[in-house]
Design a protein that fits this description.
alpha+beta; Cytochrome Bc1 Complex, Chain A, domain 1; 6-stranded mixed β-sheet
Length: about 475
């Protein structure tokens, strides 16, 4: 995740270019500043439809690969939530020519890394190798992508492990409060379904489901591969084609995403965990999509409100009152609007005090807005914290992939601090009224219901469920 707290999901590039021709990435008509965070790179579409993005960076002898599939858990069939994550994970469980142990041993021999990252809208594979080992590394990645075994026994072990893991997670409310919040905020929408599935959905997944998901969604024409590091942009295409050119096209169909409806009124979900000594809570509503015109203003406002250690939420809930160790606010940006939330936790006996304080701070934001000094402080903070997210080859490969995925230009990153610097007090006031919900709020609490039931009822009609119930 990025250091600035506005988004779990990241950034990336692109305009449309001729298929099969590598071209330099251009701007959006605004002249980028000197010392671009994301320099110009090449974009090529291979004959099998794979989009290849390449950026040379020769400071260290390593090369990073970031591959994303334009499909994630939103493509899970109803009743088989967790299928996308299971399919992605099974790519590491052996191929037709290698066991999982053999792949791990070869990675160790190369000193390389290979990681998998599931998501709602996309799934990712990232790898890093020394520049001298690029071809051997690509062969390993190719074998995993093109020849997965999908062993039935390995799948059963994975499913059993994940089901046990879900039960263990529920012993850690700070980890699962987000799952309950998403389910409550997005009823009937794919964003409300857990990426990792549930205790009921996971056992319903079989090998045929995994194979079908792979065939439909993990195809080259639905994938983006970014390469950044100590490589020659002029030759990397042939090396990638050698490794992945035999990856056949399938029948990939991009998922159509529907924007979730904003929550109306105030409603409360109380998740009962009788042995909890703290109450974890989230408060919010539907937020904004990636690339929204309000993005710079939101970054400035949220930095002050709940996006840094010295934010209003942290100052009041932690520093001054000692009610919590952590409090923050965040906008989760996706192709369509994700969640906005205020999140914190406190001792059970202080649940009402902490929640009242969080809501009072939200009211203060609407009534008083930001001072000129707070605006200036936020801009300085962003100017210092934003650039370090785009320094390493791995960070740049991720940025290229995400810009491509979201259809954004390099200037989305390169001009971001210029745009936040230009935010005025009037624009901040406007975005507060528009984007920070005040009356319409989804509120989720995880804690001992017997002790906080009356407190929860102060905030709206309460739906109650046990944390021991399957799912979220």
């Amino acid at each position: 995740m990025k250091g600035w707290m506005r988004s779990a999901n990241a950034l990336v590039v692109c305009s449309l270019f001729a298929v099969g021709v590598a071209v330099a990435q251009t701007g959006d008509g605004v002249k980028p500043p000197a010392g671009e965070l994301v320099p110009a790179y090449t974009r090529t579409v291979l004959p099998n439809g794979l989009v290849l993005l390449v950026l040379e960076q020769h400071e260290v002898p390593v090369v990073n690969f970031q591959l994303i599939f334009r499909s994630g858990s939103i493509a899970d069939p109803a009743g088989k939530e967790g299928l996308a994550e299971a399919t992605l994970t099974m790519l590491r469980k052996g191929t037709t020519s290698r066991t999982a142990e053999q792949t791990a041993e070869e990675l160790d021999t190369l000193g390389g890394t290979l990681d998998l990252e599931p998501g709602f809208e996309r799934c990712g594979v990232s790898a890093q190798f020394l520049s001298k080992d690029v071809d051997r590394g690509l062969e390993l990645v190719s074998d995993m992508l093109l020849h997965p075994r999908f062993d039935e026994g390995e799948l059963k072990k994975l499913i059993d492990l994940n089901v046990d893991g879900l039960r263990d997670l529920k012993d850690t409310p700070r980890v699962v409060v987000g799952n309950y919040y998403d389910s409550f905020l997005f009823p009937g929408h794919p964003f409300g379904r857990p990426i990792g599935g549930t205790e009921k959905s996971l056992p319903a997944i079989g090998r045929a489901d995994v194979q079908a998901f792979y065939e439909a969604n993990m195809r080259p024409e639905g994938a983006i591969l970014a390469v950044a590091g100590d490589i020659d942009a002029a030759t990397i295409r042939s090396r990638v084609e050698k490794a992945l050119g035999a990856w056949p096209k399938g029948k990939f169909v991009a998922q159509t995403e529907t924007a979730p409806k904003a929550f109306k009124g105030r409603k409360v979900l109380l998740v009962d965990k009788p042995d909890a000594t703290q109450t974890y809570f989230r408060i919010g509503n539907v937020g904004v999509a990636k690339g929204d015109p309000d993005d710079p203003s939101l970054d400035v406002v949220n930095t002050v409100f709940g996006g840094r250690f010295t934010s209003w939420l942290m100052t009041e809930l932690r520093t001054k009152s000692g009610l919590s160790y952590n409090a923050h606010s965040s906008f989760v940006e996706r192709k369509v609007p994700g969640a906005f939330y205020i999140s914190s936790f406190t001792r059970v006996d202080d649940t009402g005090k902490a929640m009242d304080m969080a809501l009072d701070i939200l009211d203060r934001l609407h009534k008083k807005g930001l001072t000129d000094a707070e605006l200036a402080s936020a801009k300085n903070y962003i100017r210092g914290q934003f650039p370090p997210d785009y320094e390493t080859p791995g960070q740049l490969a991720e940025a290229m992939c995400e810009l491509e995925f979201f259809g954004l230009d390099r200037s989305f990153i390169n001009l971001h601090t210029q745009r936040t610097d230009a935010v005025t007090g009037a624009e901040a006031k406007k975005v507060i009224a528009k984007r920070y919900p005040q009356k319409d709020l989804a509120i989720v609490l995880v804690g001992p219901a017997a002790k906080i039931r009356k407190t929860a009822a102060k905030y709206g009609p309460v739906t109650e469920k046990s944390i021991d119930e399957a799912g979220f």
